[in-house]
Amino acid sequence: MDNLNSVLRSVEDQVAAALRPAIPDNTTEPVQSLTPRALVVVFNPILDPPTGKRLLQAPEAAKWSQVDPLLAGYMADVAECSGGQVKYSIADRLTRDYFPVKEDGFAYTGASYLQALHTLQYHSPDYADYGPLLKDLDLLGHIARGDFDEVWFFGGPGFGFYESRMAGPGAFWCNAPPCPNTDASRKRFVMMGFSYERTVGEMLENLGHRAESMLEHRWRHAPDAQNLWKKFARHEATTPGQAEVGTMHWAPNSTHDYHWGNPAPVTTRADTWLNFPNLSGQPKSQGAAAWGGGDIRAHHKWWLERLPKVPGRTGGVANQWWRYVINPNDPEF
């Protein structure tokens, strides 16, 4: 049934795209002010019920990040990289004292989770069952009432959250399969999965993968020769001599996944994207020093800063790509 529904949605999508009036390319279409409101849900399970001791109080968590600095750093970086166009706010913040249930019904106890932390042997399948989360938090109702626009889950290693996942009517791939049975929300929304074991750099990576999915979807009807998203994502390993900005995992000169620290120079047109839609600038010879020398946060900010964010429209797509990254209900989807 899910496969059939997917096929039907694809056909409906193609029909809608064919019927949608084309907006002529221009240089004047204004950028949108993007002010999404997030619900923050921190999963801080009780490890020992008699004492009420929680995970973030355990010695094992002593070297982990704190949620407040993670939130502040992430929102500041997004605002900076988007040229001030994306200004997140926190609509509400909740704490949950349980371990998320896995897709096969398994749930950690305090003792079994600490053992998994020590051995690095986490339960498989790892992914959380989103159904109980939606029900417990009444996410579909809150979204339908307009209480917030997206959800940010925070958990520890092995909690099983997708980096990003879309729900709602017509939800599509957002670095994860769309969440089923969520039409009651009345509109689409994204649930981000962050880890307080990690840093702002990993949070930006989650956003970057969300961006890759959303932009791939927005540009899906464009022939390859006119598909500017595919041009943006080029790197030396896949298109020798035609490197542009690359992807989250692949800098212009990477030779393997996560290889942001390769010092070897490559000819790239990454900096021309700072002048979008004018991409006529000359390529440069650049290596890792240009995008942070291997630092995850520096590379991801460098990448996000090059997403177009100016007025106008090119190839039928707004020159403000951030509106597609942030708003899954953009009418052009």
Summary tags:
single chain, alpha/beta, five-stranded mixed beta sheet, two-stranded antiparallel sheet, 29% helix
Describe this structure in words.
The structure is a single chain. This protein is an alpha/beta fold and 333 residues long. The protein has nine helices and eleven strands. The strands form four sheets. The protein has a five-stranded mixed sheet. A hairpin with a 2-residue loop joins strand 10 and strand 11. Helix 2 runs parallel beside helix 8.
What topology emerges from the helices and strands here?
Blueprint lengths: L1 H18 L17 E7 L2 E3 L4 E2 L12 H15 L7 E8 L13 H10 L10 H8 L1 H7 L4 E6 L8 E4 L21 E7 L4 H19 L9 H5 L33 E3 L15 E3 L9 H10 L3 E6 L2 E4 L1 H5 L7
Helix pairs in contact: 2-6, 2-8, 6-8
H/E series: HEEEHEHHHEEEHHEEHEEH
* Unreliable residue runs: none
Q: Please, how many domains?
A: 2
Shape: globular
Q: Could you estimate the helical fraction of the residues in percent?
A: 25-40%
Strand order of the largest sheet: 4-1-5-7-6
Helix/sheet category: alpha/beta
Mean pLDDT: 95
User: Helical stretch count?
Assistant: 9
**Rg over alpha carbons:** 21 Å
Strand tally: 11
Largest sheet data? 5 strands, mixed
> First CA to last CA: what distance?
23 Å
Amount of beta strand = 15-25%
Report a brief summary of the structure:
By secondary structure, this protein is α/β, with parallel strands linked by helices.
